[in-house]
Structure formats: C-alpha cells, structure tokens
Amino acid sequence: MADLRASPALVTLRRRVRTHRRPLAAVCAAASVLVAIQAARPDPGPTTPVLVTATALTSGARVGTDDVEVVAMPDSLAPAGALRTHEDTRGRVVAAPVPEGAVLTELSLVGPGLLEGFGRGTALVSLRVADAATVDPVRVGDTVDVVGTDPRGAAPPRVLARRARVAALPGDEGDDRAVLVLAVDSDVARTLSGAGVAWHLAVTVVL
To answer: What is the pTM assigned to this prediction?
Structure first.
C-alpha cells in the first residue's frame, strides 16, 4: 500500500495557510470590492484628441513639437476650436501666454499667413495692453500707435511704435481681449517684446 502520509513541504504549506487564513480572506474581499467598483464605474463616453501644452508658452514664441502633446479628452470637455494634431501648430506662434497643461485652441495661436502682403523684414509681435476696454474700437487691419506709460510716474509717456498694423485680435473675453498681434519691422518688434515689463501699454488708432 502506498504511503499516504503527507510530505513535509505539504504539511508546512497547510500550516501557513491556516496561520494566514484571515489576512488572505481580507485580501480576497478587498480584491472583490475593487472589481465591483471597476465594473460599476460609468463609461466616460466618446473622447476626442486635443493638443495640450507640455510647458508654459510665452507670447510670440513659435510652437515646437516638444511644446505640445496629444491627449484624449471627453467630447463634453473639449473646448470649441481645440487643436487636434501637431500639424495644426506648424509654423504658428503663440498669441498670448499659455500655461502648462492648457488646451490649445485656434485663438491661442496666430499663423504665418498673417504676414502675407507685408514687406520683407516684417515681424509679428503679441502685445498686451493695460486696459482691455481700450481695445474695443480696434479692428484687424487698423493702424495704431503704441504708447507706454511709466507705472511709477517717473517718466513721461513715450511712443514705442508708430503706425503698427493690427494683424490679429486673438481674444474675445476677459484678459484675452487686451491682446493684440501687431505687424512691425524687426527693430520695433524687439522694442515691444519686452515693453510690457517696464511700461503700461496702450494703443491709439490712427489714420
């Protein structure tokens, strides 16, 4: 007759199972709860690809491949005019500062086509004025002078750019209304690119 005695290894295994019976039961119960929660979780519904900034973008910066990434977003949360692919940013520049993790829309960028019809050496510069209400009468194609006012009152107002052409008005609401994109020569573009740090900026429409 075969020896029916259990091997030492089997005896040890049985002893360990008896010793850890309660912890094992708890683990199994927890796993069951997680499975039930996963099964009960509502379907997020259809999604759509959108472009999200991988880093903060500054006004006037040209968008590179590494600056954005494509993520899937529920259709109900995707903003109107959201950009979908990297091709949507090719050759385009940032119209106003965009924080990291923001969805890019058509209003976030301006394209190289805005320079069509301007002479060689013309540059696009994004400008934020101090008072958004002063932009209300401005329209694309208008000619404006850019005036800087010293916020400390230590210097008189200064005309920073004369007869700059308005190439785009990216924003419609809130602070974005205060942003203009101007077509100017490269020297004026360098002056205006850092002007907002030292001056409160305003524009006046001229003929």
So the answer is: 0.48
